[in-house]
Task: inverse folding
């Protein structure tokens, strides 16, 4: 029983934080070229998290050399501190729910009809062999406060091309005593419209550990959004976690009852 609960906690806490993280870097920014700097770009991205609210359906596929698994998710988010997720399929996980309010998180496990609060000890665990940990995803929401941000001035760094598109490289370095696990985080943002192209994780020794890349940009409700995100680890090149947007609605009111333990239980 403990093993089932532990795995479900890891799976669902990772899902909700994964969604939170992905949307924190989706929306094209509107920073004036005259005022552009690393912090302003990231601050504007944070400011535009899902507009005021977002609600939609997503598909997450995790692949390794030996197996492949896909989840369908229903997601509700309200900036800056409320998120709710319900797994729609496959049948084995259908009904599982995750609720986050500020720094607290709960999971509902329908097979045992229990709501379980996620403990801090679960934050460093990976999700079903993927390249995401709970800590990775939670900490991205505090990037502005926990990191310093700089667009590098050297020609190579300041004109990184991804897919032959000129791009900015924004280097984020942890502030002293910041409660983070990464030694450096690097955004690659297209110069023409400040669309995020990739997000890269480095350890304290400066080694690239994993990269998240964005593709399939399309317009949704007047927003240009990359609708496919793929995470790959440098030490597991055959593994990939792909997150795809199915549908989404921005800035529509979400009933307060959505972000409650009662709703988490499906009541």
Result:
């Amino acid at each position: 029983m403990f093993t089932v609960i532990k795995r479900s906690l890891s799976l669902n806490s990772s899902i909700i934080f994964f969604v939170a993280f992905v949307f924190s870097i989706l929306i094209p920014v509107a920073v004036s070229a005259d005022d552009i700097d690393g912090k302003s770009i990231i601050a504007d991205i944070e400011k535009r998290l899902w507009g005021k609210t977002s609600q939609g359906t997503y598909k997450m596929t995790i692949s390794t050399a030996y197996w492949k698994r896909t989840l369908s998710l229903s997601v509700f988010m309200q900036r800056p501190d409320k998120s709710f997720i319900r797994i729609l399929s496959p049948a084995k996980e259908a009904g599982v729910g995750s609720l986050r309010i500020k720094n607290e998180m709960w999971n509902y496990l329908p097979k045992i009809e229990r709501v379980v609060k996620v403990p801090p000890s679960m934050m460093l665990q990976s999700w079903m062999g993927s390249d995401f940990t709970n800590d990775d995803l939670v900490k991205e929401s505090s990037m502005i406060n926990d990191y310093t941000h700089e667009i590098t001035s050297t020609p190579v760094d300041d004109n990184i091309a991804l897919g032959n598109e000129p791009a900015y490289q924004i280097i984020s370095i942890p502030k002293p005593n910041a409660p983070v696990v990464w030694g450096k985080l690097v955004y690659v943002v297209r110069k023409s419209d400040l669309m995020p192209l990739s997000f890269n994780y480095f350890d304290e020794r400066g080694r690239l550990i994993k990269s998240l890349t964005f593709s399939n940009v399309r317009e949704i409700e007047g927003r240009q959004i990359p609708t496919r995100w793929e995470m790959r680890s440098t030490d597991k090149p055959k593994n990939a976690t792909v997150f795809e947007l199915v549908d989404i609605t921005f800035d529509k009111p979400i009933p307060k009852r959505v972000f409650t333990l009662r709703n988490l239980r499906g009541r």
About this structure: The first strand starts at residue 53 and ends at 63. Confidence is low (pLDDT under 50) at residues 22-34, 153-161. DSSP finds six helices and 14 strands in the chain. The helical segments are 2-24, 38-47, 134-139, 143-146, 155-158, 261-264.
